[in-house]
Amino acid sequence: MPLLTYYIGVTLDGFIAGPADEVDFFGLSEDFVAFLAEEHADLQPSHVRAALGVAEAPLRSHDTVVMGRRTFEPALEAGIANPYAHLRTVVISGSLPAASGPVEIVAESPLDVVRRLKATDSPYDVYLAGGGCLAGAVSSEIDRLVVKKYPIVAGRGVPMLDRPFAPETFRLEDVRTFDNGCAVLDYVRP
Fold first, then answer.
1. pTM of the full predicted structure?
2. Residue 99 reports pLDDT greater than 90
3. Residue 63 is part of a domain; what is its CATH number?
4. Pairing between β-strand 4-10 and β-strand 125-130 as defined by DSSP bridges
5. CB 160 within 8 A of CB 10
6. For the chain: N or C, fewer Cβ within 10 A?
7. What confidence tens digit (pLDDT) does each residue in 135-173 have?
8. Which residues span the domain enclosing 71?
9. Surface-to-core class of residue 156, CB atoms within 10 Å of its CB (0-12 exposed, 13-18 middle, 19+ buried)
10. What is the pLDDT of residue 64?
11. The organism sits in which domain of life (predicted)?
């Protein structure tokens, strides 16, 4: 049964984007980019995979991405019809018209969608691309957190999980640090 992985960049104070969905303040470095290409190629948008030289790399861990409308729309605005063309792409939205094809747009309950995606016999996991509202709605189904913690304090913005107070415990599996000051923390649900 596939696991749900929430792979996300976050500030020290817990924000995945600024108040107007800004993400351009998350810095990169050569060793960090090499790590993303080597360890998390499946989880990169298709145009980023191409820039990293791994566009044709076979899938290693994930074959499906699920996201909300606010995560999907910037790609559309940039003229990218399917930001994760190498994966099955599922967008959960009550305001976009339903669609099937390269990008599936569904208006179902986020929990129902995620549970259906996890109930397959695929050997690959499901990548939760966000954002904070969707992650908060499905947090009980998150099996793995890959948190790219950047050395930035934002003060305000989009929280990593936008949901009511409900503590959940995860176990730290791995930590990697990089020249840009970023630490990648890999957690699993016990």
1. 0.94
2. no
3. 3.40.430.10
4. parallel
5. yes
6. C
7. 999 999 999 999 999 999 999 999 999 999 999 999 999
8. 4-188
9. exposed
10. 98
11. Bacteria
